[in-house]
TrEMBL record:
GO terms for molecular function: glycosyltransferase activity. Residues 14-178 form the Glycosyltransferase 2-like domain. Keywords: Glycosyltransferase, Transferase. Belongs to the glycosyltransferase 2 family. It comes from Paucidesulfovibrio gracilis DSM 16080. The lineage of its organism: Bacteria, Pseudomonadati, Thermodesulfobacteriota, Desulfovibrionia, Desulfovibrionales. It comes from the Bacteria. Transmembrane segments: none annotated. This is Glycosyl transferase family 2. CDD domains: Glyco_tranf_GTA_type. Coiled coil: none annotated.
Length: 346
């Protein structure tokens, strides 16, 4: 474990936390941070023009503990508030945090140690504890379970186009990444997922501490539930850009790909790649109503007709529950290697 430094005016860690109408959850969040075993940090909390008591809560905590540094800006959205927090941060490492989540006591210490002892690593996350109702939000809980299985840099990289491989409030990264690659981009897409894809596209290595370090809560007001930038179409729009860039570097038959799945949602999502010059040559499916058809000039073939590995790079866009595992098992039986011959992208 890395030892704490002697206190200076410049902390080693800055916790960058945008806040918006968070008065009900903010005290517990701040208490969890102030109870960290690692103490050499600051909390850069940016109130994004809240209409509730958020600013007063932040001022009261700042009065009690100088490590809390509150700022207030005109409401501009989470990307603007997060970038303001990054700009105001002074630490060498930046930990992201949301005002409705809880940091477990060893979170900062574990991630500081991880980055300090792995100089080639740019960003580290962790496994997270789901803080919602698993029965009422089963899909979200299963997503958390999936992210918790992605711990190594290889697993994170190969699964980046399925969905965001991190619970983003769990990440800590070197502040130099922000200075070199920019912060969060504001647009009609999830700013945190775009940030991760952009860094990975530029070769930044990412891992996770194999331990639960954050309670990822799931309130009804969470942006991923309420903001159109987090709907499925927005995720597919942003991933299409970076997936096309990945294919240009890794697909030996670039720009041609085959697509597993021929349903309307699959075709609509895969078609986003065409904007970036990717050529979809054929679809593969199991549905006898689709097999044998020609859709938009592309034949639909039975899945058993996939060519031998190396003949066509395949993308699996089938998103139904259990389909990714089934398709993975099928392709492995045909000696396809993930990342070399195919990718799951849904």
């Amino acid at each position: 474990m890395l030892h704490q430094r002697r206190k200076t005016s410049t902390p080693l860690v800055s916790v960058a936390m945008p806040c918006w109408n968070a008065e009900s959850t903010l005290p517990a969040c701040l208490d969890s941070l102030l109870a960290q075993t690692w103490t050499d940090f600051e909390i850069v909390a940016v109130d994004d023009g809240s209409k509730d008591n958020t600013s007063n809560v932040l001022r009261e905590y700042a009065r009690r503990d100088a490590r809390v540094r509150p700022f207030r800006i005109r409401h501009g959205g989470v990307a603007v508030a997060a970038n303001t927090a990054l700009e105001k941060s002074r630490g060498r490492f930046v930990a992201r945090m949301d005002a409705d989540d809880l940091a477990l006591p060893e979170r900062l210490a574990s991630q500081v140690s991880w980055l300090a002892t792995r100089p080639k690593l740019g960003l580290v996350g962790s496994r997270v504890r789901f803080g919602g109702d698993r029965d009422a939000a089963r899909g979200y809980a299963l997503y958390v379970d999936w992210t918790n299985r992605l711990v190594t840099s290889e697993a994170i990289s190969l699964n980046r186009f399925v969905e965001s491989p991190f619970a983003f409030p769990s990440v800590m990264f070197r502040r130099e990444l922000f200075l070199e690659h920019g912060g969060f981009r504001d647009g009609d897409f999830p700013e945190d997922y775009e940030f991760l894809l952009r860094l990975m596209d530029r070769g930044v290595l990412m891992e996770k501490v194999d331990a639960e370090l954050l309670v990822w809560n799931d309130p009804p007001s969470r942006l991923t539930r309420t903001d159109p930038r987090y709907d499925p179409a927005a995720f597919y729009r942003v991933k299409a850009k970076y997936l096309a860039r990945w294919l240009a570097q890794h697909n030996p038959d670039h720009p041609r790909v085959g697509v597993l799945g021929a349903g309307r949602p699959t075709r609509k999502r895969a078609e986003m790649l065409s904007e970036y010059g990717i050529e979809i040559t054929e679809y593969y499916d199991l549905d006898p109503r689709k097999v044998g058809q020609v859709i938009q000039g592309r034949p639909v073939r039975h899945r058993d007709e996939v060519p031998p590995p190396g003949r066509r790079f395949l993308l699996s866009y089938v998103a139904s529950r259990g389909a990714r595992e089934d398709i993975g098992a099928f392709l492995r039986s045909r000696r396809y290697n993930l990342g070399r011959d195919w990718l799951a992208v849904a």
